[in-house]
């Protein structure tokens, strides 16, 4: 082994990942080379340095945001349970959601478990059912795979000139959990908005708008756009982590006919 | 129902099971227990504060929904870290517009203080040194950075890190070795300064 040994090889030697023959050659070299021994010492120093870095604490704003997100998910989960319980004659009588998960993972893994990819939502809601339970009769019993896909229904009056800022505000409200659903918006908008609240139709619509990437969804809202009933879908940009894609769709939007009124890209900050 | 008084005695696995069974507070308790550790992994792996926050939020949402898939083959923390790392990988893959660039907004980064071995009396200097370590880490390929974060910084065993990163223990060792080799020219001067 002429000259000195490269740092990668010395690091591999120090970590013990060289094959025995090569490792023996390195050890032989190190016995007579102070410079390479110093490099090995410095590599150990890197580990010491990294391990001595104190662990950063989670910033309060991040903690608050995630706690709000968990609370929102818990709230939605509870809502779905209530929905199932109140599902009418065809709905399950008991809290099937709780019973489902109380069934333990091994039950879920077993043959007794029927997994239904319930396309309530063109892919963003899915539910798993124990075959002993009756299937859910309607979409109320779906568990949102991406809670951000659940419409917020703020009734906000979106406008072309301020769409970007309004989309960012919507995302902040969604993440913070600080928003108040405005169910009266549907009547205020002459019933047309109610058509957008048809979750099955909206779900297919949103799936089409997001190119069947429900994980991209950051927020979905029902309100108006330039005075007309509309749904607004905010999603992470497929090409830039600094931007949102925002789509505005009108009543009648469906998987086959998204009825996009406006589609734009806005900075996240 | 999980109360504040009994959470100290309840294991992570039991809390997760309670969450699956419908306990509305159990998942939050798990988060509260491990948030700093999860944050450290996300921040050190992502480099960017906001992206780390987004990745961690993604991960916890995923863990909330997928809790029923936890099979108890590893510790809950290992399972959680794996979800966090995967969320970080997903977000890094989306960084097509900015494949390699230095860390932004240094003044807003929570990177912790400087290493004890670099005891600078001036807090500003100490923070600068800590940021230099973070920036050097950001220069590594994700796989090497993630391995070093878990092994050298978070103190995970090679076996646990291999479970989290879903690869062989030998691969973890190789990634750590090559990562340290890359860090040496970037951080050697800090060690000399101590």
Describe the structure.
The complex is a heterodimer of chains A (269) and B (194). Chain A has helices at residues 7-15, 20-30, 34-52, 60-85, 96-101, 104-109, 163-176, 185-188, 192-196, 199-209; strands at 113-116, 125-130, 143-144, 157-158, 217-225, 228-236, 243-249, 260-267. The radius of gyration of chain A is 27 Å and the shape is elongated. Chain A starts with 6 loop residues before the first helix and ends with a strand. Chain A has a five-stranded mixed sheet, with helices on both faces. Chain A has a three-stranded antiparallel sheet with strand order 1-2-3. Chain A is α+β, with helices and mostly antiparallel strands. Mean pLDDT of chain A is 70; it is low at 87-144 and 186-190. With 194 residues, chain B is mainly α. Mean pLDDT of chain B is 81; it is low at 97-109 and 113-121. At the A-B interface, helix 1, helix 3, helix 4, helix 5 and helix 6 of A face helix 2, helix 3, helix 6 and helix 8 of B.
